[in-house]
Design a protein that fits this description.
The chain is mainly α. It contains seven helices and two strands, in the order H-H-E-H-E-H-H-H-H. The chain is globular and about 55 Å long.
């Protein structure tokens, strides 16, 4: 399947996962916002994996996972509290299989995805804080920045779980202190976002 089509399918599926509740109640504006934010949360995440892998001399592209896509779609059902986000993955094929080199490549390329989400979440939270401080924030912008903070934090948190094949399982074996710091930051950002509603 074409990589661009795989990414578009991923965005659509994630818009259902996070926006099915809005669709159920006919809140199409919130659904549209969630679709935009899902695109921001997922596409740069996967492209960061791919970019870093290619910079390290690996073959890399994004592909859909049929089983992961099915699990993700199941959690799109409204009122299912825990959302699974694994419709696809960025394939990384290194040129050599030296264990030390492989561990480093997988650690770095895996880390770049959640790091991208952390950066988007922090930037959204910073903008939200600035606008609240100066007293200029229309409701639509508030919802957008809040959802961007929360969704990016959730995507980072989920991907950082130390469970194969998620990113966290590769990062923790490569650099445990870095994994701990990033995982705690993702949790902190998500918790902060829940108090801003």
């Amino acid at each position: 399947m074409d990589e661009k089509l795989a990414l578009l399918i991923t965005v659509f599926v994630l818009s259902l996962v996070f926006g099915s509740h809005s669709l159920l109640y006919g809140d199409f504006l919130t659904y549209a916002l969630i679709t935009i934010i899902a695109s921001i949360a997922v596409i740069p995440h996967e492209l960061a994996h791919r970019w870093s892998a290619r910079k390290m001399g690996c073959y890399s592209r994004y592909v859909l996972s049929p089983f992961g896509l099915l699990l993700t779609l199941i959690t799109a059902i409204p009122f299912i509290p825990f959302k699974i986000i694994m419709p696809g993955f960025t394939l990384v094929t290194p040129r050599t299989y030296d264990p030390y080199y492989l561990k480093r490549v997988m650690g770095i390329t895996s880390y770049m995805g959640p790091l991208t989400n952390i950066l988007f979440s922090v930037a959204s939270l910073a903008l939200l804080t600035v606008f609240l401080k100066i007293g200029y924030l229309n409701p639509l912008l508030y919802v957008f920045l809040l959802l961007s903070t929360r969704l990016n934090a959730w995507v980072a948190f989920f991907n950082l779980l130390p469970v194969p094949p998620l990113d966290g399982s590769k990062i923790i074996t490569w650099n445990t202190p870095l994994w701990i710091a990033t995982f705690l930051l993702a949790i902190g950002l998500y918790i902060v976002s829940t108090f801003l509603l």
